[in-house]
Design goal:
The protein has 126 residues and is mainly β. It is built from no helices and 11 strands. The chain has strands at 3-7, 10-12, 18-25, 32-39, 45-51, 58-60, 68-73, 78-83, 92-100, 115-116, 120-124. It is globular and about 40 Å long.
């Protein structure tokens, strides 16, 4: 059974950093585009970053450009989201998602993705 598992969330002070991980169980991520989305309390799900299966294409939402970095480690079958200079507005549940048979990736719509993880909570507070 295909499964995505996020980890690395937590409580962090403003200005701090976290590295979120998206690991795959039951399949290899090599052939999947991966997206990271987040959902803040009372808001809809927002795409923040994505990476193509080759790693050659990445996208970032304007709100996170320069602070978030997405990468993938094929040997570890994991995709990472490094998040720096955290602000309270980054507080949300972060989800990773996967889509097969795609050359690029997307942060425009969650419907583009086939598989989803359960999410990891990131809370930015002093």
């Amino acid at each position: 059974q295909l499964q995505l598992v996020e980890s690395g969330g937590g409580l962090v002070q403003p200005g701090g950093s976290l590295r979120l991980s998206c690991a795959a169980s039951g399949f290899t991520l090599d052939y999947y585009a991966i997206g990271w989305f987040r959902q803040a309390p009372g808001k809809g799900r927002e795409g923040v970053s994505c990476i193509s299966r080759s790693g050659g294409i990445t996208y970032y939402a304007d709100s996170v450009k320069g602070r978030f970095t997405i990468s993938r480690d094929y040997a570890k079958n994991t995709v990472y989201l490094q998040i720096n200079s955290l602000i309270p507005e980054d507080t949300a549940v972060y989800y990773c998602a996967a889509r097969s048979r795609a050359v690029a990736c997307s942060i425009g719509t969650e419907d583009w993705y086939e598989y989803w993880g359960q999410g990891t909570q990131v809370t930015v507070s002093s």
